[in-house]
Design goal:
Elements lengths: L3 E4 L1 H5 L10 H9 L4 E4 L5 H10 L6 E3 L4 E3 L7 E2 L4 H11 L4 E6 L4 E4 L6 H9 L8 E4 L2 H7 L6 E6 L2 H14 L3 E6 L3 E6 L4 H12 L6 E5 L5 H6 L2 E4 L5 H6 L2 E2 L7 H10 L5 H6 L5
Helix pairs in contact: 2-11, 4-6
Length: about 290
Amino acid sequence: MYRLLAINVDGTLLRPNGRLQSGTKEAIEFVKNKGVYVTLVTRRNFPSTKKIAKALKLDSMLVTHNGAFVGSTVEDPILEKRLTEEMTFNIVQVLENFECNIRLLHERFSVGNRTRFQKNLLAKAVFGSGDPLFYPMQFVDSLGDYLIDNPVATPKMEAYFSTDDECKRAAKTLSEAFTKVSIHHDEKGRLEIVPKGVSKLAGLKVLCDHLGIPLDKTVAIGDSNDDQPMIEAAGLGVAMWNAPKEVKLAADWVTRSNNQNGVTYMVKEHFRKQQRLEFLNQIKVEK
């Protein structure tokens, strides 16, 4: 009996064009009718994730900002971990020595610097962060100067670089200078910076503890390297076909790609065999 389904968003729930996979809404409704709690676990900011959840008719708590912010509303999260105002400012001071676009991703707004480098950096920073149109976005000439008058404690920072070599150099510098942050680097020239100990798995554990659901009673579906710990720890870990090889090797189940309705296929194939918990209780079947 699996009691919670955790789904990553980009590369898993969404197709490469950013749209929901065909049949996803029906699959989510199908599994909800089985009495399974459905949540989204994502690197996206809270408003963007909430918009997707609304489209799926989910009113559940969401694990966002790579696990730094967990809740069903902005006003009342069950978990919020932040880079302090001082640490945010100091990291920005370091990053402004590199050729990059910096984004501070608060749960209510985002603020970033106007890059003077490659023109596509700003577009990558906006669309790569999954910002919905209603999410307040501000760009300033100097993020460091802005923070002097407007200090921000943020759940997550992102930096987009013109080259991957520059990105790796910045990651090395930050790792050596700041021991209380976690830095994730991907091959697309992007850094994600969160408080130490923050991860999708850690956020999912907080949600499971809050709901009273053991981790081994969860199903986790993902496609990226930062999904792998969650996939390995879940009762049933599922990798998308479009996931890296190491993520697929870590999974219990490999489903179709996000371009072939992999989430819908997995959900209907697996959960069609599972009865509602209330029904099993009625016939006195042990949980």
